[in-house]
Amino acid sequence: MPTKLAEIVDEFAGAPHELVLELLLEYADVIPPLPAEMSREGMEQVPECQTAFFLHAQVQPDGTVITWFDCPPEAPTTRAFAGILAEGLAGANAEQVLAVPDDLYQRMGLAQVISPLRVRGGTAILARLKRQVREQISAAAG
């Protein structure tokens, strides 16, 4: 797991139970806006999320992964999942992204403060992101 993401996980895991949700919502504003040349049409929708959520990962020639997320502001929990990934995976390479544990949000203690449906949506975001990375690695390997 990338160092920055591990730090975020540790921060959540060590936070008092009553502050975890507040800490989570701080990440809702971390997602950068989509570049002008990108739209939802070029992104994958994550239907497991209760709100319209789109993502796209691109493995660069040097192996680093760039991620883009699109989620409406009125879905702060879902935006926060994306914000955690955007910040935690910034500069990460494909191997590091694929090494992120599938139970990331449970490790952070989020399963105790948000609904199972929301945790499922966050888990689906990570799974689809990792699948996109795996598919690009396979395609590049020929």
Automatic annotation (TrEMBL):
InterPro entries: Fe-S_metab-assoc_dom. Residues 16-132 form the Fe-S metabolism associated domain. SUPFAM superfamilies: SufE/NifU. This is Cysteine desulfuration protein SufE. It comes from the Bacteria. Belongs to the SufE family. It comes from Micromonospora mirobrigensis. Gene3D superfamilies: 3.90.1010.10.
